[in-house]
Specification:
This protein has 257 residues and is an alpha/beta fold. The protein has a domain of 59 residues. Helices cover 32% and strands 24% of the residues. Strands 6-7-8-3-9-10 form a six-stranded mixed beta sheet, with helices on both faces. The chain is globular, with a radius of gyration of 18 Å. The structure holds adenosine-5'-triphosphate.
Amino acid sequence: MSDMLLEVRGLKVVFDGFHAIDGLDLTVERDEIRFLIGPNGAGKTTLVDAITGLVKPAAGSIRFEGAELVRRREHQIVRRGVGRTFQTPTVFEQLTVLDNVDVAASFRMRFGSLLRQRRGTSPGVLDALRAVGLDELADANAGVLSHGQRQWLEVAMVLVQGPRLLLLDEPVAGMTGDERTRTGELIERIAAEGTTVLVIEHDMDFVRRFATRVTVMHEGRILTEGTVGEVQQDETVREVYLGRPRDARGAGAEAVA
Ligand SMILES: Nc1ncnc2c1ncn2[C@@H]1O[C@H](COP(=O)(O)OP(=O)(O)OP(=O)(O)O)[C@@H](O)[C@H]1O
C-alpha cells in the first residue's frame, strides 16, 4: 500500500494574471527521493514556494500527512515538518557555523525567541552538523565557508528542525564535482534516515546519478513522471527541452538526452 506524504491537487498560483502553476497535481510518497526537473520558468520554485507558504495559491489543495497547508503561515508549515533550502543559501555570516544551526533550532520551538538567554546548545545541533559533515567547522565563522559548505550549513539549519519532508532548490548549483558527489550522498543519507526529499535540479548528470523517480514540470503542470531512463526517452519531454535554447546552467535540449 502506498504511504502518501504530500498530495497536491488542482494547484494554481497566479502572478498578475500569469498562471505560474496551472492546475498541478502531484503526490510524493514517504521515504522517496523525488527529483523535479523542467525548463526555466516551468514553475518548480513557485511550487516549492506554495508548499512552504511563501506564495498563496489562487486555488487547489496541498495536503501534508493529510493536513491542509494552504492558508497556513510559513512558520506553521515548518512546525508541521516541512523544511526547505533556497537557491542562494541564507546563512548568518557573522555567526559561527554552530550558532547558525542553533538559531535555526530555536525556530521550531513554539514560544522560542532568538533573543532569549539560553544555556548550552539546543538539542540536535551537533547531530545536524555531523550529518552534513561540518562538525569540525562548528566554531568557524560562517562567513569563511565555501559556497558548497554554505549549502550544507543551510541543510543542517533545516535538518535541526526535524523535517519529515525536505525541499531542496538546486542544491548543487555552483558546486565542484566533489561537492556534488558529497551532496548526493548526503541526500541519500537523509532519506535513509526517514526524511522524504524533493529536489529541484537542472544538473542532469546529478539527476542521473542520484534520482530514482523524476517528475517533469512544464508551464505550471506535471508533464510526466518516471525513472530517469523513462523521462529521457519521453518524446514530449524532449520536445519541451528542445523548444528552448540551452541556458547558462546547461538546462537545454541536450540536458535530457
Ligand atoms: N513573484 C513573481 N512575480 C511574477 N512572476 C513570477 C514570480 N515568481 C515567479 N514568476 C514567474 O513564474 C514562472 C515560474 O517561475 P519559477 O521560478 O517557479 O520557475 P522555475 O521552474 O523554478 O524556473 P528556474 O528553473 O529558472 O528556476 C516564471 O515565468 C517566472 O517569471
